[in-house]
Amino acid sequence: MKKIAKSLLLIAFLASFNACNDDEPPLPDNTASFESAAQGFEGEEAEIKIVLSRAVDAATPITVSLAPTLLVYGTEFTTTPAATNNTIALTVPAGQSSASIKVTRKAGVLLDGDESVAFKITSVAAPAVTGTNTELKLSFKAIVSEGTSIQLNGIAGTELGSNAANSVFLDLSSNIQTPVLRNSWDLGFYNDADFRVVINATNGASVLMVNKTDINAVSAKDIVLDSLAVGQGMGKLSLVDDAKGDLTKTAIKEISATDADNKVYILNRQGGSATVLPADQIYKIRVLRKGTGYALQYAKLNETTSKTIDITKDATYNFEYVSLEKGATVDVEPVKTRWDLNWGYSMYYTNFGTGLIPYGFSDLVFINKQAKTEAAEVLTSAVTYDAFAESNIAGLTFSTDADAIGSKWRVTSGGTVGVKTDRFYVIKDSAGNVYKLRFVSFHAEDGGVRGKPKLEYKLVKKGA
To answer: Which positions make up the signal peptide (predicted)?
Structure first.
């Protein structure tokens, strides 16, 4: 009897243990949908994406029909993959969670702007099923969206949603999201009048200045590597950039016109969980002004010969980005007037009782502070999402802090996990368009998928 009792106790304990540690409950059906119901067309090409809730284990065929209005396929536009009898056959490769159609305007074709193409998902093969957004209208002009429902694509592969590999930029007026791998860049160089450099908060980066100007003379002897650790109770806010987006509070000091004032910094390009990369993966950097742009000197920590990358400012973007591993500039965020929100993991801050310290958060939402995007939080006890109208805008207090939304929209522990349904947000973009926006789901416990939050928004007031 004692053995039986012990066995039952062990089974109960294991069941309890597994339940307490099941951070990723069973997922719902894997659905395939367009990212939105409407999309605009700028330039010569447009990309239309079909996204799945998660990666598929086997290659998954999807069939899409198209119906042009005031256009002739092959004469004014084409698609990749090509359409046959107004039907496009796509395949989502095994291990992937999306497929895309590239729409190309034919060279030399003049259009009035009333032209469009209606796309419809007509079939999805197992193991996926058809989702909700099965139809999309592509207008051959820029649009100001009336609003839509959209699922952000934070998952890049098979990683857990709580550690989503993508940051996602979202432009409300065009219904376009841009996922970017968090690990794809290291430094951002400000394109406006000031000379400022940011580190990659979405990769848990940290940086520390060394009181030297000769980058080739700096080595592991100049630092205790553990002093770069941030997150999980470790580190100081001086090691990371300001979470509210204040560029006067970057961890790297403003780049001086006097070269001698620009010191060497040691960069842990990937961290956030009180971890520091090995010395052979740590970089040292020094940034100088070069004309109206920048000159970046960089090397591995113990290397004695540095390399240089020249960075030219481009005012159409907030920042120019550099990957130290690639030794080159890389594309990250969209044109500064073409995104409003950025979702994903990032270094942030918390308080364990002894003051603010850096801390890594999943599912943070930042607004495009540098492009003058603003946001206000509205509690449903004051006015409901459905009832909110243009007449309510005047009573709001908008914030330009990058973390105006931050983590306030969801609960991840200490209560009912899921989206907070007692609030929504009002976003004013750089063109003056005002949208109301609410989060629908982001976790299995609120009917969603971790790493692929769903939200909806509606135009309240069109910009002048």
So the answer is: 1-21
